[in-house]
Specification:
This protein is α/β, with parallel strands linked by helices. The chain has nine helices and 17 strands. The chain folds into two domains: about 1-140 and about 300-330, Medium-chain alcohol dehydrogenases, catalytic domain (Quinone Oxidoreductase, Chain A, domain 1, Alpha-Beta Complex); about 145-280, Rossmann fold (3-Layer(aba) Sandwich). Helix 3 packs across helix 4 and helix 3 crosses helix 8 (about 285-295). The radius of gyration is 20 Å and the shape is globular. The termini are close together. Bound molecules: NADP nicotinamide-adenine-dinucleotide phosphate.
Length: about 325
C-alpha cells in the first residue's frame, strides 16, 4: 500500500510503499478513502509532540470501507462504510481516561495510508448520505468539541458562550454544537473573514484575540459576561477569562496553541465560584452521543479544503499558516 511517511522531524512528507497490515482476531482492515488533519498531526510532523518517533505514518481521522474482519468480529461489517473513533482504550471511567488510553496515529499506524487495522470496537457506520471526505472530517474534532461543550461544560439552552479561535477544526464544531443547543455564541479570531463565517453559522459576533482591549470589546458586544468559555489556545489571553465569567461560570480548556498561561489572580476564580476544567477527546459514550447529536441537529462538517494525497505537504502548510476555517481533508488515492 501507499502511505504518507514522515521520515524525520520537520521533513517534507513523502508517499512510500509499505506492507498492508493484517488484522488480528478482534480487528478489522479498512481501506481508507479519506483522512483529515488535526493540529496534533502538525505537532508530530514538527517533532515537538511528546512521544513522536520517526519514521511514522500518522493521522487520527479516517473514513473508508471494511475489507477484512478478524475471526471474532461480526462478518456483517464486511464492505460497510465506516468512520473510526480515534480515542483508543479509554477505560471504564467516563470522567477520565485510563492509563492505556492513546490516540490513533501515534504510537500505532495512522490514517494517512491506504489501509489501516483497528479494533472492531473503534468503528462506527458512516452517517447516511455523507461522502467519505465529510465523514473523515468528523471524529477527533467533533468528539473533542462534544465533550468540552456538554460533558465537561454542561452547556444549557439560553446560556452565553465564548469560543476562542473561531477558525480551528474543533472550534467550528464547538460553534455548530452551541448554536444547535440554543446558546448565545461569541467568538475570537485573528481574521475578519473567519468571524463573518462564524456569524453565518449562527454566532452573534466576534473580536480579534490579538488586539489589545479585546476583552472589553467582547463584554460590550455581549452586553455582559459568559456562562461558559471554551478555549484551545491558552497563552497570555487566558488570564483575562475569569474576569469575563458570570458567577458560577466555567472555563474548559483542551489545548495550548498560543503557549503557556503566564499568571492569574486567584480572587477572580474563587470569588466567582468559577471552575477551570481540562478535557481531552472523549469516552466511547461521548462518541456515541456526539454522533446522535450531529444526526439530530443535521450538523454537517465544515471542510475548508480537500487535498489529493500527493499534495499532503500543502495541506500541512495551510494548517501551519492558520488559513483554514474548519477541517482540512486528504483524499487517499493511488499516487503512482
Ligand atoms: N485535548 C484534546 O483532546 C485536543 C483535541 C483536539 C485539539 N487539541 C488542541 O486544540 C488546539 C486546536 O486544535 P485544532 O485541531 O482545532 O487546530 P487548528 O484547526 O489548527 O486550529 C487552530 C486555531 O487556533 C486559533 N488560534 C491561534 N492562536 C490563537 C490565540 N492566541 N488565541 C485564540 N485562538 C488562537 C486559530 O484561530 P483563527 O484562525 O480563528 O485565528 C486557529 O485556526 C491545538 O492546540 C490542539 O493540539 C486538543
Amino acid at each position: 500500500m501507499q502511505a504518507i511517511f514522515f521520515n524525520k522531524p520537520d521533513a517534507i512528507c513523502k508517499i512510500q510503499e509499505t506492507q498492508i497490515p493484517e488484522p488480528g482476531d478482534n480487528d478489522v482492515l479498512i481501506k481508507i478513502k479519506a483522512a483529515a488533519l488535526n493540529r496534533r498531526d502538525f505537532w508530530i510532523k514538527k517533532g515537538i509532540y511528546q512521544g513522536a518517533k520517526f519514521p511514522c505514518i500518522i493521522g487520527s481521522d479516517g473514513a473508508g470501507k471494511v475489507e477484512k474482519v478478524g475471526k471474532n468480529v461480526d462478518k456483517a461489517w464486511l464492505n460497510e462504510a465506516v468512520i473510526i473513533n480515534p480515542g483508543l482504550n479509554w477505560g471504564d471511567d467516563p470522567d477520565a481516561h485510563g492509563p492505556d488510553f492513546h490516540i490513533l496515529g501515534l504510537p500505532t499506524q495512522g490514517t494517512f495510508a491506504q489501509y489501516i487495522v483497528v479494533n472492531a470496537d473503534s468503528i462506527w457506520h458512516k452517517p447516511d448520505g455523507w461522502t467519505f471526505e465529510k465523514a473523515a472530517a468528523l471524529p477527533l474534532a467533533a468528539l473533542t468539541a462534544y465533550r468540552a461543550m456538554f460533558t465537561r461544560g454542561n452547556l444549557r439552552k439560553g446560556q452565553k458562550v465564548f469560543i476562542t479561535g473561531a477558525g480551528g477544526g474543533v472550534a467550528v464544531y464547538l460553534i455548530q454544537f452551541a448554536v444547535a443547543a440554543g446558546a448565545k455564541v461569541y467568538v475570537s479570531s485573528s481574521s475578519e473573514k473567519k468571524i463573518k463565517k462564524a456569524v453565518a453559522l449562527g454566532v452573534e459576533g466576534g473580536v480579534f484575540y490579538n488586539q489589545p482591549g479585546w476583552e472589553t470589546e467582547l463584554e460590550n458586544m455581549a452586553k455582559g459576561k459568559f456562562d461558559l468559555i471554551i478555549d484551545s489556545a491558552a497563552g497570555t489571553n487566558f488570564e483575562k477569562f475569569p474576569g469575563l465569567l458570570n458567577t458560577g461560570g466555567k472555563i474548559v480548556n483542551f489545548g495550548g496553541t498560543a503557549g503557556k498561561i503566564p499568571e492569574m489572580t486567584a480572587a477572580k476564580i474563587f470569588w466567582k465560584q468559577a471552575s477551570i476544567l481540562g478535557t481531552t477527546m472523549g469516552s466511547p459514550t461521548d462518541f456515541k452521543d456526539m454522533i446522535s447529536f450531529v444526526k439530530k441537529h443535521h450538523i454537517e462538517p465544515v471542510i475548508d479544503k480537500i487535498f489529493p494525497m500527493v499534495d499532503a505537504e500543502l495541506a500541512f502548510k495551510q494548517m501551519e499558516n492558520h488559513e483554514q476555517f474548519g477541517k482540512i481533508v486528504i483524499k487517499i488515492t493511488d499516487v503512482y
